[in-house]
Amino acid sequence: MSNTATLEVNGQKHELPLVTGTENEVAIDVKALRGATGGVITIDPGYKNTGSCESGITFLDGEKGILRYRGYSIEDLAEKACFLEVAYLLIFGELPTKEQLDKFYADIKAKSVVDDDVRKIVDAFPKTAHPMGVLSSLTSALTAFNPSSVNVDSEEAMYNSVVKIMGKFPVLVAWTMRKQQGLPLDYGDSNLDYVENVLKMMFKKPNEEYVQNDIIVRALNKLLILHADHEQNCSTSTVRIVGSSHAGLFASLSAGISALWGPLHGGANQAVLEMLEAIKEDGGDTKKYMAKAKDKSDPFRLMGFGHRVYKNFDPRARIIKKAADEVLGDLGVEDPILDIAKGLEQEALTDDYFVQRKLYPNVDFYSGIIYRAMGIPVDMFTVMFALGRLPGWIAQWREMRLRKEPIGRPRQLYIGENLRPFKDIENR
Ligand code: SDX
Q: Alpha carbon of 185 to those of 119, 122, 144: distances in Å?
């Protein structure tokens, strides 16, 4: 195959270089386009055909339903690794040795105490505040208590900022939930492993011993791994573009949390449960909701269905669906919502509208069913997504800064008014 693409503009031909990735994906490098053509640019709302960067962290093949972190398949990692190993892999590029993992967790624990003044910020929120808004604010506030921005040229400074946020973020997640429930804000137990500690911080009642449930520990490990990274999705692109101005890591993460909140993105896991509940209240009338989803005059979409990249099954949805059956079975939880979800999936998989548009269940379709069985409130589901995505955001931010990527500043095509004379107010 030629290593250039030929473009003809206004009768002039231009050769644009083709670049090929390690999985044989091909991109047209348009870095020189505007200069070579006297100002012609590309335009691609939503970046459906546009790559923003080269990255070595996560590989997706949307047609084949493939997802790999640093070359390891999501199926292997979900089955065989723990979340902290996967976090290390995403951020530093290799699976850790036992010594490296032990040191990573020891360094995280050493930095996991959040300044007590942060409690005053938590106290200032109403109990009704959405947890994603609280979490985004608290993450940004961390900058006030950890003012030194990251010197990316120093591996030590970068490592310290990574272990700091990996330690403090789970505390903010737990405090966000406990604030809403009127429970005291406390710390977990550094004798526990990372996920066990998250669960204890979230669920420990002040007057009871907290007893770990291995089924829930294993389920949360798997869910966090499945959410850990997903190449240049909306929230990760947000973290990258904010970080490209050399804003700090915590400020960039706070922006990513806000992007993830949207119901078209991470907020879908909450919207799925609300949709399934509405269908249950409606007597399980899935056909009514399928019709609404297909009605162009109705803004309703089948939440948890469709994906910008996966035009086949989302491998994570397949794993989570299996885990939902296992977890509910192991916990002895009967949840009619799971049956409604499976019924809806079956209907959509045989409906022309969904088949033609290659709309399949995505990561958000079944995850909320497990979170609910674990006793997590529905408006905390997207916070759990953020907890899982944290190492991916960190890894992508670190890669962008270490590769010295330029500040993100897209062009536009102006379609407004041409030059016109000012009119005094009397003449308008
Ligand atoms: C996540 O990018 C990532 O990697 C995200 C994520 C990650 O790990 O970071 O995977 C996590 O965000 C998963 C997606 C969660 N969102 C939802 O479940 C919300 C419902 N899904 C949609 O809103 C939608 O499918 C998107 C946003 C996920 C993808 O939208 P696209 O790629 O921009 O597709 P589109 O809007 O152009 O839709 C193409 C067609 C349209 O119909 P036509 O105009 O061709 O007639 O499909 C239709 C859409 O109306 N369509 C849907 C639909 N999703 C797309 N119709 C009904 N229900 C849906 N869910």
A: 8, 9, 20
Can you give the pLDDT at residue 176? 98
Asked if 378 and 270 count as a contact pair (C-beta separation under 8 A), the reply is yes
- What are the strands of the beta sheet with 72-73, ordered from one edge? 58-61, 66-69, 72-73
pLDDT tens figures, 395-428: 999 999 999 999 999 999 999 999 999 999 999 9
Answer for the pair 112, 169: CB distance below 8 angstroms, yes or no.
no
CB-neighbour burial class of residue 162 (10 A; exposed 0-12, middle 13-18, buried 19+)? buried
- Segment 180-205 shows an average pLDDT of 95
Average pLDDT over residues 167-188: 96
Token pair 């016109």 in the structure block, residue: 420
Give yes or no: 307 in active site.
yes
Half-sphere exposure of 161 (CA within 13 A, CB side): 27
Task: Kindly tell me the burial class for residue 13, based on how many C-beta atoms sit within 10 Å of its own C-beta (0-12, 13-18, 19 or more).
Answer: exposed
Does the beta carbon of 304 sit less than 6 angstroms from any atom of ligand 1?
yes
pLDDT at 35: 96
pLDDT in tens, 129-168: 999 999 999 999 999 998 877 888 888 999 999 999 999 9
Residue from 60, 384, 45, 402 nearest 240 by CA: 402
| Ligand 1 centroid from CA 401, angstroms | 30
The rounded distance, in Å, linking the Cα atoms of 203 and 118 is 20
Q: For the chain, give the number of residues.
A: 428
Mean pLDDT for 251-257 is 98
pLDDT > 70: what percent of the chain? 100
Rg of the Cα trace of the chain? 23
Long-range CB pairs of 406-409 (<8 Å, 24+ gap) are 406/244, 407/244, 407/245, 407/246, 408/52, 408/240, 408/241, 408/244, 408/245
pLDDT of residue 413: 98
**SS3 at position 92:** helix
User: What is residue 152's predicted lDDT score, i.e. its pLDDT?
Assistant: 82
364 CB near ligand 1 (under 6 Å): yes
Ligand 1 lined by 225 (C-beta under 6 Å): no
